[in-house]
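Pasting as-is:
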Amino acid sequence: MHGSKRRQFLKQSGAAALMSLVPEAVRVGAWAAGSDAPEKKEVRVGFVALTDCASVVMASVLGFDRKHGVRIVPSRQASWASVRDKLASGALDAAHALYGLVYGVQLGIGSPRRDMAVLMTLNNNGQGISLSRGLAARGARDGASLAALMRREPREYVFAQTFPTGTHAMWLNYWLAAHGIDPLREASTIVVPPPRMVDSMRAGDIDAFCAGEPWNHCGIAEGVSVHGASSQDIWPDHPEKVLGATREYVERHPHATRALVAAVLEASRWIDASAANRERMAGTLAAAGFVNAPVDAIVDRIQGRYQDGLGRTWTDPHPMRFFAGGAVNFPYLSDGMWFMTQFKRWGLLREHPDYLAVSAAVNRTALYREAAARVGVDVPAQPLRSARLIDGAVWTGLDAARYAVAHAIHA
């Protein structure tokens, strides 16, 4: 989509314009031969041991899935690569997934290309960047002081993230660049599964890591790391994990998919309804079969209680949220587009994709609206939203190609 055609689309910015990008069979629900009954009763949903898998887990534990005619079978995965591969093979029907993982597969980055689907956003906020105690002892306690240390004491600095196209890689790169550090030329970056981050830092293999909770909190509690930044410092109320699937699965099982989204939406609403619910959720996730971490490591940051490991404590105004009146869960087209701009910025894409068309194909806004209506959740009128990021750049979802190349530090 180019030039005047794109501008006309965005001026229209209504349902008709969006639906014009969706295949006819999907648009009219040609599969629905008169029945809303789920095509399958058991839905295998993968997750990685992170706090933000909570809505998938609680949908199963609390029975929201059975209410909608399906049974969610949560399946813990050792890594994001396992999630990707099992979605592609059909060993998983859907998964708690990194936003950028879904788009990486859609675009064929690092794996065979496969048409994918983002069904809903699972959470906003709640990831972190942790610095080693060794860096802190040498004065690096935030982005500015880390940049100063790296200039003062040049060496190979090794930073870890969780997946090459994932959210953590993008938050880490964006944060470093916002403080004048080129993540491609002035540091080495490696991939480490989230539950192994603290051990890798303890062993001295990495100087910093970006991962989801509770592993940042665990590193502080165990005396291994200090708080460098929260992902919400980079982009307040940013999109994080999504409920992902292959397009093939969704089109073969539309009713089961809508039932799954409705169940997870109900669980999301339940989690955010009260502090007591979040406490109960933390107790559930702490079990060995889920996150396998101390309850305190989960509950403090889910309640917005932060510490930096150096004596400072605070209440974060943008902690991890799963629902927030439904504001969290809509799969905004602009959110998917943003991750593609970062793929282009960091050299994962050689050419600009058609940002809007790809996002409209991947993010299943129509299916989400149907599921949301089923459980009485409001949805936004527009598929784009705007935000101001840590470096002052404003993302609106408009002119994505220009935004992708507008930053001084890039591949």
